[in-house]
Amino acid sequence: MVFSASRRRHNSYTLAPLILISVNVLLFLTFFVWPAIIGLAYSFTSYTGVGDAPWVGLENYQELIGDADFYAALWRTLIYTACVVPLMFVMSLGIAYLLVSPYAKGKPVARVIFFLPWLISPIIAGVIWRWLFGENFGLVNFVITELGGDPVSWQSNGDLSLMIVVIVATWAGTAFNMLLFIAALKNVPVSYYEAADLDGANAWQKFRKITLPAIAPTSFIVMLLSTLHAMKEYTYFVAVNDGGPGTENNLIVQYIYETGFKRAQIGYASAASFVLLLILVIVAVLQLIASRRKGS
Amino acid sequence: MGISASARKGWLAASVVGALVLGACSSGSSGDGDPKSITFWFSTSAQDQGYTDLAKEFEAKEGIKVEIVNVPYDGYQDKLSQAAQANALPDTASVPSLDPLWVNQLQDLSSIANAEANKINKNLVTADGDKVLSIPSDVTAAGLYINKSLFEKAGVSYPTDPAQTWTWTDFLAAATKVREATNAKYDLVYDNSAARIRGWIYTHGGTGFQLGADGKFATPDAATVTALTEFAKINDDKVMPKSVWTSGQDPNALFKSGQVVAYYSGVWQVADFADSITDFEWASVPSPAQPTHATDINLGGKMVAFNNGDKAEAAKKWIDFVFQPANYTKLAQTNGYLPIETGLTLTYPFEKKAAQDAFALYIKEMELADPISSSGQANQTKLLLAKQKVEDALIKTELAKLVNGEQDAQKTVDAIVTGLNDQIK
């Protein structure tokens, strides 16, 4: 009887989790693992999307090594990531810090306002900013010309065009990170600050010596997710300037899309995708190592 | 030894969940289900009323409901390819071009195309031997529009007869005169598409990107390179705004703002302009010829019916209904189509004389156009019948690099030819 009861308990504790995760596992296998395996297989072929997929071995990867357009897209991706991640980090932490401050007024309203960009579809956000910074009839250029200035090449200057997307992505991405930071900041024990006050620490010292170390795990997550997200950015570039001017702001994902679908080089684009995957894995591992060292 | 009740419940739950997931993941072939309803995919931003009206009449007559799905143009071809791979193609569609990926799933429309009463221009249907794969809903052509109000304000004249048209040099000189006299912002905006740039190349005497006898795209002639060099040059933020070709700025919106003297686009704009331009007078004018009188004659949506099981018959019935002269007349009139059927008396429902005149002008332009004008769609058909396909969107990308100064015209045409040929290895 004892054995039978134990077995029943064992069954229910084994089966319930299995059932609960089975849907996710099935979806993961169907929509991630299987397409990934197919993608990896295509990367060794010259598949064009139609007919056979002739095996070419490592030819696509060898070609990628000498592809100037690929390096240009990769370099632009790194520049974009290097700009947007720190900016987003500072903005979201700064706003979160203000929103948990006991001196701040109208916090509920401010939270809603700052969170709104997160609720807007990236395409809509991109279109809104395109109206603002449209080169020919955008609102910003309209104001500039009304004030007697010359219109600015927000779209046909490559660097300005990149800068606009950095601003858009920061504006849109700050909200979610801000929420993470608000939760982390609220969990910092008040007693630390009280002790620091007794020791005569100023605001900057308290922020640097107490707040930053206390929210380090959240900071790590924010940095990791923002970096991975930035390196895969696509929507804002397409919506704001179509990766332009020309192909100057074709980031790596747009390069993959253009190569795969507009040039019908599915095999080559798959190889580029796997190089990107490798880069993202390296970034994640490096950040993990750095985080663990700091933790230890 | 048997399975316990709780375990049975667990497995039952797992089976139900599994079945639901598999059901959700399955393609849901549109060939299954109620044959009293079929799907019709097409893509337009303006010409939809005609199909909606016909679908109602079709349902009243045949008892078959046509579910019209307006798919965004960007990505429409990709969506069809994915639908084919997922065995979830619509029952009927109006598509920009046929795809070898799903061409073998098309029904034969020869009985409709060859029906005496329909008087369909058989030169423009896509046929594989005796089998008709698609019938275009309409004929399209590229052409020039002007802001008539600005021309009148500046006191500058323009030609009205395609037989006595101007050159690009004359046109640009006139447009600059108008811009300077009226404080407009630009002389011209030019649609950012491979089809439109063919019009520019042909009217400049170039042959553009043509299939050679070996079935590969040949290197274009010198006139094409010169024409593209000239095109890049006028993207100087005075004659033309650079942002249209380099950063995806919408030329249609720019022209409608009233601040642009002229707009090179296609016949489909007529219906749109007739409704939406109220702040100024516009007119369709003859395309410049320098020296060739040409345009880019293409086909509007290509109507196809897929072999979707028990819905196949209803799908073909819908296409047949659309092309019956009385119904097609309504469709062409309402949607503002240049007809694929001859002998129709069309009265377009546009109140504006400019829109009525535009159609008359386009018909004249096509009569005068050099045969090279229809080579773009002829190349597509040749490739399709050879079970090959090219994405000419890369022409846009390479030209954007040219306009942005990333490469010269020679490198641009070389990259285009290589890119096109890479797809038909």
UniProtKB/TrEMBL annotation, chain A:
**Domain of life, per lineage:** Bacteria
Name the Gene3D superfamilies for this protein: MetI-like (1.10.3720.10)
Domain ABC transmembrane type-1 residue range list: 74-287
Q: What species was this sequence derived from?
A: Actinoplanes sichuanensis
SUPFAM superfamilies the UniProt entry points to: MetI-like
Enumerate the transmembrane spans.
12-37, 78-100, 112-132, 160-185, 210-231, 266-290
What is the protein name for this chain?
Carbohydrate ABC transporter permease
Keywords assigned by UniProt?
Answer: Cell membrane, Membrane, Transmembrane, Transmembrane helix, Transport
Matching InterPro entries, A to Z?
Answer: ABC_transporter_permease (IPR051393), MetI-like (IPR000515), MetI-like_sf (IPR035906)
UniProt-listed PROSITE patterns: ABC_TM1
What membrane topology is annotated for this entry? Multi-pass membrane protein
Q: Which family does it belong to?
A: Belongs to the binding-protein-dependent transport system permease family.
- Any keyword Cell membrane? yes
A Pfam match: BPD_transp_1
Its primary localisation, in coarse terms, equals: membrane
- Membrane found in the keyword field: yes
Q: Name its cellular compartments.
A: Cell membrane
UniProtKB/TrEMBL annotation, chain B:
Q: Check the record and name the Pfam families matching this protein.
A: SBP_bac_8 (PF13416)
**Top-rank lineage group of the source organism:** Bacteria
Keywords from UniProt, A to Z, are: Cell membrane, Lipoprotein, Membrane, Palmitate, Signal
Which SUPFAM superfamilies does this UniProt record tie to the protein? Answer: Periplasmic binding protein-like II (SSF53850)
The name of this protein is ABC transporter substrate-binding protein
Organism whose genome encodes this protein = Actinoplanes sichuanensis
